[in-house]
Amino acid sequence: MAPTKVKIVEVGPRDGLQNEKEFVATETKIELVNRLSQAGLQNVESASFVSPKWVPQMADGAAVMAGIARRPGTIYSVLTPNMRGFEGALEAKADEVVIFGAASEAFSQKNINCSIAESIARFEPVAKAAKEAGVRLRGSISCSLGCPYQGEVPVASVVDVVERMKALGCDEIDIADTIGVGTAKRTREVVAAVSKVFPRERLSGHFHDTYGQAVANIYAALQEGIEIYHASVAGLGGCPYAKGATGNVATEDVVYLMNGLGIETGIDLDQLIEIGDFISRAIGKPSASRAGRALLAKKRDGVAPCV
Amino acid sequence: MAPTKVKIVEVGPRDGLQNEKEFVATETKIELVNRLSQAGLQNVESASFVSPKWVPQMADGAAVMAGIARRPGTIYSVLTPNMRGFEGALEAKADEVVIFGAASEAFSQKNINCSIAESIARFEPVAKAAKEAGVRLRGSISCSLGCPYQGEVPVASVVDVVERMKALGCDEIDIADTIGVGTAKRTREVVAAVSKVFPRERLSGHFHDTYGQAVANIYAALQEGIEIYHASVAGLGGCPYAKGATGNVATEDVVYLMNGLGIETGIDLDQLIEIGDFISRAIGKPSASRAGRALLAKKRDGVAPCV
Predict the structure, then answer these.
(1) For a 10 Å CB count at each end of chain A, is N or C smaller?
(2) Which of chain A's residues have a Cβ under 8 Å away from the Cβ of B186?
(3) pLDDT per residue over B94-125, tens digit each?
(4) Which region is the signal sequence (chains A, B) (predicted)?
(5) What is the pTM of this model?
(6) Is the interface score ipTM higher than 0.90?
(7) Is A306 part of any domain?
């Protein structure tokens, strides 16, 4: 049932960098996006058209999108929280716009003071405009495997949000384990349930490695036939609130897994580990990718790690 | 086919600490072993009866074994490379002695200048003496999923070593991915093959997280019915040869996985994360356990990491 090839959506330039305190130079962001597309990533989440007051790191979204060298066939996505963001995205010629909502009622109330249903309804104009403009529409569902406030998130809540996003016309929907608490069993339960209401081949798994479970969760989701996975080169996107806590699963670790499983990604792992090294140096942080660190050590020092 | 309960073999005090350059005080080692058994670990690899010239960190094995408070039912294992080691282990009242060999011919030649077959035959006296003394005998097979020198390790080589260790009378045999290169598919192939020549319930999986695959490999091995897993609290056992490379899979991450799968371990995860914190502070290194760090941050600071 596991697919023979998968699409990896690289979220490092947006989800990964957005919480970096030090502003990352626009040219560094552009180089990151360009190198990722050259390495074979078919979809790169490149910017966020959100108010710079909310996310100062993403203030240069228009400049990033204007500066990149578009690789034919690559989808460059941007986050669009509202119509103003959508207009920016359209002007920037984004291939895909991303809207979002939580599967947790407590999270929705606490973060944006409204119900899940209301929060998704607010995206109606964006969704409508995207459809009219012929831009791909992606919906991302946070807290799909657990919530920091309410803990357990019922599978039915995730299914409900998927149905709402489907009704808005989403081409692709992300099942996101925002806080990384999910394990393999829950992953399978959730993706199996949502596969019944939305085409499996347009569902994606977005896992965080906070509890060390992300690669196992991807292996579990593969067994449910999921064909799209999000990942962040060098594991960009460490948690801003807890020192040492890890964030997005590293793209290198995911590609290493897929290579071992004989599942095609179209991604050059060697180029990818160089990109991980490049961006880690640029932001002055060690790479959070285990495969990236091990392969780089082997390449640079000629040592086989950990014998 | 996945088991409803598993045994976790804690290898931190031996495999984890053995490469620490700074000598870890004997009382710290004793406290580590004691706290691990109190937390519910049923098997603790506690010391190595190897020449202190080879492994100075393990020079105090007899003192560690003499100092621990034995918990009824807990198996305290020690590594015994030869008859001299075995005699020390017997005197120290070890419950289980561990012998070892590689599944890779290149590794065996390069490291101990003899063939796999010869290296295992050398353990015959130890195996015989263990059987006569009524001490449990465990065999550990390194490089079962890959070798730093020859790369690929044929499944047949692993099966061959399992058969040799079975012939020596091993009660339990470890399939060890010493350099952490294995992925889920290979894991399943190897454990499925060796399960045909040795009772599945006495096979264990020993995975390293060097390439970020260990938890996924455990999830894969569970699906092949493997019921015993090695792990190291705080991920003790970082690689001595490559900076930043990770070693043994962290016990906290494995218990977190099992809890999520509803598989019984008998281990108190809260105690375990405190032990991970204790030993990480004692050796002055950050914990390599993702679950350990995340749960500790949540407990100490009241924050839910990575929202």
Answers:
(1) N
(2) 260
(3) 999 999 999 999 999 998 889 999 999 999 99
(4) none
(5) 0.96
(6) yes
(7) no
